[in-house]
UniProtKB/TrEMBL annotation:
The keyword Coiled coil applies. Residues 14-48 form a coiled coil. It comes from Candidatus Eubacterium avistercoris. This is Flagellar export protein FliJ. Keywords: Cell projection, Cilium, Coiled coil, Flagellum.
Length: 69
């Protein structure tokens, strides 16, 4: 036979809520760090691709800068 849910006191409910908030904040911090790392990796990949394209074009970096300005 299933048991009913445990009835928590207000203090216990507060402690559970505080712990849940702390766990969620830790998970959020970890996700933000992962996001930042992924963005940096994407940026480096894009820079490498752009550099390769400049090298293949036979133009100097200064020539490409002048074309873009």
């Amino acid at each position: 036979m299933p048991r009913g849910r445990k009835s928590y006191t207000l203090e216990e409910q507060l402690e559970i809520t505080i712990n849940s908030i702390a766990e969620t904040e830790a998970a959020l911090k970890e996700l933000k760090q992962k996001k930042k790392a992924l963005e940096a990796e994407i940026k480096q990949k894009n820079i490498a691709e752009l550099y390769d394209m400049i090298q293949q074009s036979g133009k100097s970096l200064d020539e490409v800068k002048a074309m873009l300005q």
